[in-house]
Specification:
Jelly Rolls; globular; eight-stranded antiparallel beta sheet; about 200 residues
Length: about 200
């Protein structure tokens, strides 16, 4: 949970005693490659933090086709992207979720009851500020991703994602990476071939 502390410290000042309080809300869980961390059809009731490993969030469309929604990476060093997991629509709305989250390699995930996190936020202005900053950060990531999908052609999307998070191409299978870019796997192959010439 070191990175979570660094992240929180970058937004608000937290004493060691306050951090111990936050840390006590979370319990670690361990997942093997291929195991599901969360499932569609369930109500998400926990805040999930990826402390180590690689995972992906994915769904199944109306035609039964799988699509990758997001990649999550925390290698404990330089590669930390989308370290908060779970179906946030379900978490906030209290409705059944439609997102799965799968461990792509061994993962350590810290889990806290969302109701406990909400109580923490409501306990003081500094925690509300942390919640606001974290939510705005997640919103920016999603907004930029959506704009990328709408504004850029397939090749430019590939280049933008490769520039932003090169680790994704290493950790995702080609069909998962293509899905994240919202292109067909054949288009991804064609783009890679074109760029390698």
């Amino acid at each position: 949970m070191d990175y979570l502390k660094i992240f929180a410290d970058s937004l608000i000042e937290i004493t060691e005693a306050e951090w111990a309080e936050v840390h006590a809300l979370y319990t670690p869980e361990y997942y093997k490659k291929g195991e599901l961390i969360c499932r569609a059809g369930e109500v998400c009731r926990h805040s999930l933090y990826l402390a180590g490993g690689v995972a992906r969030s994915f769904g199944i469309d109306a035609y039964g086709k799988e699509f990758t929604w997001m990649a999550h990476v925390n290698d404990g060093h330089a590669n930390r992207h989308n370290v908060f997991l779970g179906d946030y629509v379900s978490l906030i709305s209290g409705e059944e979720g439609d997102i799965f989250c799968e461990a792509l390699q061994e993962c350590t995930v810290y889990k806290a009851k969302y109701s406990d996190i909400q109580a923490l936020y409501e306990s003081g202005i500094k925690w509300m500020r942390l919640a606001k900053e974290a939510a705005e950060g997640q919103f920016l990531i999603l907004a930029k991703y959506q704009r990328m999908l709408k504004r850029l052609n397939a090749k430019d999307r590939y280049m933008a994602l490769k520039s932003f998070a090169p680790i994704y191409e290493e950790v995702l299978l080609d069909y998962q990476y293509a899905s994240l870019l919202d292109i067909a796997p054949q288009s991804l192959s064609r783009i890679k071939k074109e760029l390698s010439q």
